[in-house]
Design goal:
The complex is a heterodimer of chains A (292) and B (223). Chain A has 292 residues and is an alpha/beta fold. Chain A contains 8 helices and 15 strands. Chain A is globular, with a radius of gyration of 23 Å. Classes of the chains: A alpha/beta (292), B mainly alpha (223).
């Protein structure tokens, strides 16, 4: 059980912002902190790990006080037993994959755990490589395995999958879920990828401008806004070409180029580089499973 | 022509001792300047970099005064610890330590500051003490900076003139290092001997710096 009740003044790109969050997280839960960048999600995660301190408030885990401004309690990160996966992975460049994992051990003789983690994350064959020789997805798995080698009670993940390609991301989401269950972890994930949130989390804490605005299951948090018959995407205009009486507009949507027919009138207001909403109302969208 | 090799031997002995001691002192000092949060940090940083701009003779002059047996402090050191820094090899070492301090500290500090902050934070969350992290993670990742510090300190100590003249006093066989010997030989118009000393110093410093460039290029690529 994690109890968080913290306040902190932050300086963001949009000026000062008051982060104020109060939440309880049950043992074994997979919770996502969802929100725009700069909303305070990462700071919240770092406060749990002890890398940043709140201005006021308290953090308690399983009845132990980790932070309490009123009683001047502050447990060092070293004594908190959390696994933290950084956005840039923070692998030690001088150590091999195995060396990175061993660094996290309390006792060097705990080698069976290392072997198990290497196996679970499919890194056994790469264990003597240096981080610089690995792909992004492999580095991510090393970072995850290293965090687990600490035998943490809480796993904190700061947008760990955001830099990876779609396929790798899907595979790692599965692995993450597996490890979460296998080690009985309480996991907090910072993410702004909706499919990730739906796939992984039991509960979502939606944070906007430093405040917890909604919480609950993914469907209950996003349901009202997202569930509708309308299909819509945002995209960027790449090209506008005249084609007899109509125009063909190329729109970049999620790294794919979609060609849309547009009339003279519609094109008049469009410039290359404009952000546009691409939507379809009248047709029933079709679903088909993608076989990977 | 007989060449007195003692000044060269003394020069290299001084450089080795100074570099070894400064490596041990420079790492914690650079760590404190890179990561520490204390009020006097700007003052400490300024003092460390002072020798870069201070005329060596000024430093030598103050050291001479401070450790002179005619002074209370110098007397105390001599009576209590049997230490005499004026006109002695320990004095040369002390002067060189202070004078070469920024050449060791600054590259290491820059190297530490150049590492991603997340490395230190990751080690913290993995439960490791700052000393363990320094030894197992930080230092191995700033090898080029450590090498630069060692080489610059070594080369700078070899070339030192003003401080060693003031506090050492140019005593043959005791404090007469090669840079002073060159000056003496030129003064007495003994150019062949000056050529030998100068040539050796030139060749050695060139070889050291060349080796550093090659090592940094080949083996210590930034990670």
């Amino acid at each position: 059980m994690i109890h968080i009740d913290v306040q902190k003044q932050l300086l963001t790109a949009d000026g000062p912002m008051a982060l104020s969050v109060r939440a309880d997280i049950a043992q074994g839960e997979f919770v996502t902190l969802f929100g725009k960048s700069g909303a305070g999600k990462t700071t919240l995660l770092r406060m749990l790990a002890g890398l940043n301190d709140p201005d006021r408030g308290s953090i308690a885990v399983d009845g132990e006080t980790w932070f309490d401004s009123a009683r001047a309690v502050r447990r060092r990160p070293q004594a908190r037993r959390v696994g933290f996966v950084f956005q840039d992975y923070a692998l030690f460049p001088n150590l091999s994959v195995r060396g990175n994992l061993e660094f996290a051990l309390d006792h060097r003789r705990d080698q069976p755990l290392i072997d198990e983690l290497l196996g679970l994350t499919d890194l056994t064959a790469l264990q003597h490589r240096r981080p610089i020789e690995l792909s992004g997805g492999q580095r991510q798995r090393v970072a995850l395995a290293r965090a687990l080698a600490r035998r943490p009670r809480i796993l904190l993940l700061d947008e760990p999958l955001s830099a990876l390609d779609a396929n790798t991301r899907l595979r790692l989401q599965d692995e993450l879920l597996q490890l979460h269950r296998r080690f009985g972890l309480t996991t907090l994930l910072v993410s702004h990828d909706l499919s990730e949130v739906f796939k992984l989390s039991d509960r979502v804490l939606a944070i906007e401008h430093g405040c917890l605005v909604r919480q609950g299951s993914p469907l209950s948090v996003f349901g009202e806004r997202l569930v509708s018959g309308k299909v819509e995407f945002t995209g960027e205009v790449l090209a506008i070409e005249r084609n007899d009486v109509v125009y063909a507009v190329s729109v970049l949507v999620n790294n794919r180029i979609v060609n849309v027919i547009a009339t003279d009138e519609e094109v008049r207001e469009l410039r290359i580089g404009d952000k546009v909403l691409l939507f379809s109302k009248a047709y029933q969208p079709m679903l088909q499973r993608i076989r990977s | 022509m007989t060449i007195d090799w003692a000044p060269l031997a003394l020069t290299f002995r001084l450089a080795v001792v100074t570099t070894a001691i400064l490596l041990a002192l420079g790492i914690p000092l650079a760590y404190a300047l890179a990561f520490g949060r204390f009020r006097l940090k700007p003052v400490v940083a300024t003092l460390v970099s002072m020798p870069l701009v201070l005329p060596p003779s000024v430093l030598g002059f103050y050291l001479l005064l401070a450790f002179s047996p005619q002074n209370a402090f110098g007397q105390f050191l001599h009576a209590r610890f049997d230490l005499q820094f004026v006109f002695s090899f320990p004095g040369l070492v002390l002067g060189s330590l202070i004078f070469s301090l920024p050449f060791m500290t600054q590259p290491i500090q820059a190297g530490l500051e150049g590492l991603p902050a997340s490395l230190l934070e990751a080690a913290d969350t993995l439960g490791k003490s700052r000393v363990t992290t320094l030894v197992r993670v930080l230092l191995p990742n700033i090898k080029p900076a450590l090498l630069a510090g060692v080489v610059l300190t070594f080369a700078h100590t070899i070339g030192e003139f003003g401080v060693v003249l003031m506090i050492g006093g140019n005593i043959p066989g005791v404090t007469r290092v090669a840079s002073l010997a060159i000056y003496d030989e030129v003064e007495s118009l003994n150019y062949p001997a000056a050529h030998v000393y100068a040539g050796v110093l030139f060749a050695v410093t060139f070889a050291i710096l060349l080796a550093v460039h090659v090592i940094n290029k080949r083996w210590l690529r930034p990670l």
